[in-house]
Amino acid sequence: KMTQQMRDLQLAQARKPPGPSSPNAAKRLYRNLSGKFRVNYTSFDEGSLVGRGEKEKLRKSYLFQSNAALFEAVELQDLDRVQELLKQYSPEELDLNTPNSEGLLPLDIAIMTNNAPIARALLQAGAKESPHFVSLESRSLHLSTLVREAEQRVNELTAQVVNEAPNADCSEKEKQLKAWEWRFRLYKRMKAGFEHARVPDAPTNVQLSVASSSSVQVTFWEPLSVNSAVVTKYKVEWSCSPTFSPPLGEAVVDKLKNLHFTIRGLVSGTAYYVRVSAYNMKGWGPPQASVPPCAIPSNWREYDGRAPRRRGQAEALDHLLGQVKTVHQHCVCHEPCKNQPQSRKHSVSKSLKHLFHPGSKFLKTLKRGLYLTAIFYKDDNILVTHEDQIPVVEIDDTYSCLLMQDFLWFTKVSCMWDEILWLRQCVTVSQSSCSCILQTRFKMLLAISQMQGLLGIQDLGQVFFEPIKDKQGNILIVTLKEVKTNQTFESVRWVPICKLQTSRKSVSSPEEPTALDTLLISVQDKLAYHQRSSHALSPGLYLGYLKLCSAVDQIRVLVPEQLPNILCHVKIRSNPNISREEWEWLQKMTSVEEPVPAEPEADTPQNPFFHELQVAIKELMTLVNIPLHEAKDFRLYSQEVLDFGDQVSFLLLLPPSDDVCTAPGQNNPYTPRSGFLTLPLQIFELGEE
Fold it and tell me: Residue 430 — φ and ψ, nearest 5°?
């Protein structure tokens, strides 16, 4: 019986111009058409559409064409076009897992023609096999039916072409015949691919690790064999018995972008055996046991029953701040605060109008003193006043105190942008009798409030790690904030940074630039620092290098320029958890006075961890330019593992005791390579949060 799609094809050919006369011609036609499909339907002139209904019809038609283009790309084995379509559209828009009228999905065609690259691309996009193939027999029968119907149609059209006299109708049937011959060959190739396929081999490199006190994680690679069909899913099984009798559970992994699975809800202290098997269109292959064959869920804290360092600290601090506010809320100094308008509720766009009025209090030039500037940026644009100036307000024009102490206090205040008004009211009580330091800090709070009020924005962003100073006695504290919304502001223009840099007329000499000129010259570097300091590490266990250097008024820590909110580091492994057994082994190794042996003992169960640690230490010491023969003098911090959430943890590598912190005037015995900088310790601690 002829399928419905074949009937549709025959009817369509009677209405359409002559189609492609060969597979190559079909390929060219499909390429030309698919080029048109790439036009976004939202770019059509909406004024020419009559109502929302027609726009929806146009959209559905457009997506249908994209689905058809994907099927054709898979059938023609055009990997580039398949990848282009998968990148351009979501699986839902492509109807990636909706069978066509022949009961096939794009993934079915790819795996039965043994096109592994296309099949993998589809699998990573979330493609599934057709639900019609519930057994090997049903798949074989379906393919035989498709081949038989295609062959029957080829024979019918061949007889008609041979027996009919040449005319327009005959020419049309010749084109239909060539199209059916090509489809007949496709179905035969799919049938042969299915018949010659065999079940997959076992997965390779099946590794088992302890993920927590109640879970283990298994990672694996696809089978090595290239002769079997494409693997479309994996099965993970676990049991307390090495014979897997009885099995405790199993799970199917069909998202193949990352081949790993975490088994949760396990009992701490119990050994679990794990194995993994692969599946293709011929069925399940043999299982492969993990290495090591079993794992015991645990965590390093179980070694001595230690509670997490930060447990309850955030709640305790919030409670303490609430108590302080309660004590001060009836203070006379807070009476004006109660009637203060809630400027934070104003929209940014409305508030920013006030920012650029001629009467605003932003400064154009700097005199000798301490100033605050706020940099708001979006992509390569920066927010400026109507006079093309970065917003600057004055803090103190007679500043003569210790800058670093005040600056570090200011960075802590930046964690409480929403509480500036409250902090300012608290300081006003004893302002007349307070010291120079308190007066300066009160002026800092006033400047912050002024900047917030003029901008209409409470959050001024992150403080840059060092103020800008010039030889004229100006000091500029810089805050940075990225605007990620597409909000349009009235009376405000975003100016390209490069344009602002080239258009500003400097009033200083290149040898002695003012703080504002220095800011404009280095603004790109500061924005790059701000963006990099917000990057997060990928999940895993890391080895960090702690190196400090002290000055008269501060301690600084060595960090990488590319990730300044984290210590210098290398990744040990993707699993952030250290098991109780690994931690116990590490305690024994760090307690002995002899150096760690170059090679682990053969019967040591922690050999994988030992090897990972050795590789990481060597890589880290090379990174920070420390000779490897000096490793014997370095130490691993064995008091605890530093946990940053549930996904990132750190072990620390420490220099010899005398070199942990370099004193002023002391030569650093190890000069790191380029790509590092030193941050004030307090700045680093804030960024680390």
Answer: -115, 25
Q: Are 478 and 382 in contact (CB under 8 A)?
A: no
Query: Residue 357 is inside which H or E element, if any?
Result: none
One fold for both 207-298 and 369-534?
no
**Secondary structure class of 291 (helix, strand, coil):** strand
Which of 323, 321, 320, 327 lies closest to 429, judged by CA? 327
Average pLDDT, integer, range 648-655: 93
Closest CA to 545 of 432, 455, 642: 642
- Which two tokens mark 586? 């590490």
In order of 147, 154, 161, 308, 346, the CA distances from 167 in angstroms are 30, 19, 10, 86, 77
Nearest partner of 300 among 553, 53, 541, 40, judged by Cα: 541
Region of 538 (left: φ > 0; alpha: ψ -120 to 50; beta: rest) is: beta
Right CATH for 63-196 from 3.30.420, 2.60.120, 2.20.70, 1.25.40: 1.25.40
Decide yes or no: CATH 1.10.10 for domain 369-534: no
The residues, ordered by sequence, that sit 6+ positions from 559 with a Cβ below 8 Å of its Cβ are: 565, 566, 567, 568, 676, 677, 678, 679, 684
Q: Which residues pair with 207 in a beta bridge?
A: 219, 291
Burial 71-89 (b: 16+ CB within 10 A, else e): bbbbbbebbebbbbbbeeb
Structure tokens at 223: 């089978």
Distances (CA, A) of 579 to 469, 515, 584, 636, 652: 50, 52, 9, 17, 17
Task: Give the CA distances from residue 203 to residues 121, 222, 243, 289, 290, in Å, rounded to whole numbers and listed in that order.
Answer: 19, 5, 19, 9, 10
Q: Which tokens go with 181?
A: 């011959």
Tokens of 167: 């005319």
Q: Are 684 and 549 in contact (CB under 8 A)?
A: no
> For residue 58, what are the contacts with CB-CB under 8 A and spacing of at least 6?
41, 44, 49
Phi, psi of 208 (to 5 degrees): -115, 135
- How many residues comprise the chain? 689
pLDDT digits 0-9 by tens, 350-373: 445 444 444 457 888 888 889 999
φ, ψ of residue 675 to 5 degrees: the values are: 100, 10
At 499, list the tokens: 């344009």
- Over the Cα atoms of the chain, what is R_g? 35
Pair 211, 575: CB distance under 8 Å: yes
Listed by start position, the domains of the chain span 63-196, 207-298, 369-534, 540-591+606-680
Q: What's the CATH superfamily of 207-298?
A: Immunoglobulins (2.60.40.10)
Contact 96, 125 (CB under 8 A): yes
The top-scoring range by mean pLDDT among 14-18, 231-235, 388-392 is 231-235
Output phi, psi for 75, to 5 deg: -65, -35
pLDDT band at residue 229 under the 50/70/90 scheme: confident
Q: Which residues contact 147 (CB under 8 A, 6 or more apart)?
A: 184, 187, 188, 191
Q: 526 is written with which tokens? A: 């500061």
pTM: 0.75
Q: CA 679 to CA 465: how far, in whole Å?
A: 7
**CB 541, CB 609: distance < 8 Å:** no
Greatest C-alpha distance within the chain? 114
CB atoms within 10 A of CB 594: 7
DSSP string, 131-163: TT--SHHHHHHHHHHHHHHHHHHHHHHHHHHHH
Give CA–CA dist 91/188, Å, rounded. Answer: 28
pLDDT band at 633 (very low <50, low <70, confident <90, very high): confident
Element (H, E) at 654: strand 648-654
Residue given tokens 């320029």 in the structure block: 561
- The structure tokens listed for 550 are 């002290």
- Residue 371 near residue 478, CB atoms below 8 Å: no
- Give Cα separations from 269 to 242, 250, 299, 302 (angstroms): 16, 20, 10, 10
